[in-house]
Amino acid sequence: MLNRIGTIMAQAKDLNTHRLQNKERTIELAYISSLCDESKVSDFIIVPFMKEEEDFLTTLIHNPNFTELNDTAKWADTLLRGFVLISAEQRIFTLDAARIIRSETPQTQVETAIMGSQIALSEDLIDSINIIRTRYPSPELAVEETTLGNVSRTRTMLVYDNRRVDPTVLANVRESLRKLDVDFVQAAGQLERLISGRKRGLFPTMLITERPDRITGSLQAGKVVLLLQGSGFALIMPATFFEFMHAVDDEFDSFWMTRFLIILRYGAIILTILLPSLYVAVVSYNPELFRVQLAFSIAGSRSAVPYPSFIEVMIMLFMIESLIEASVRLPKYIGSTATTVGGLILGQAAQQAGLVSSIMIIVTSVVAISNFVVPVNNMSVAIRFLKYPLLVPAIFFGLSGVAVGIFVYLVYLADLRSFGKPYFRILGPTKRHTGDIGQVKPS
Amino acid sequence: MSRYFYYHIVLVALLNLMLFVPHILIQYRYHGAMTSMAISVVVGTGLCLMFMSIMSKYPGQGLPEILNRFLPRAVTLPFMVFMAVMWIIGPSIAVVSYAVLINRFINPDTSPILVLVLLCAVCLYAATRPTMTIIFLIEMGLVLNLPLIVFILFKAVRNDAINWDAIHTVANYWTQMPKWNAIGAASYIFTGYANLAVYNRAMPPNVRIRHRWTIPLIGMLVLALTFFVPIGFHGTESVDDYLYVWSMTADSMIMSYGFIERVIFVFLIMYLNLTLIYTASGWHQAIEFLKGLAKDYKPEIDGVPMKKAGMIIGAAIVAATVLYLYFFNEKITFRLSEYWLGFRLVVEIGTVGFLFVLVRKGKTRS
Question: Global pTM?
Answer without folding.
Answer: 0.89
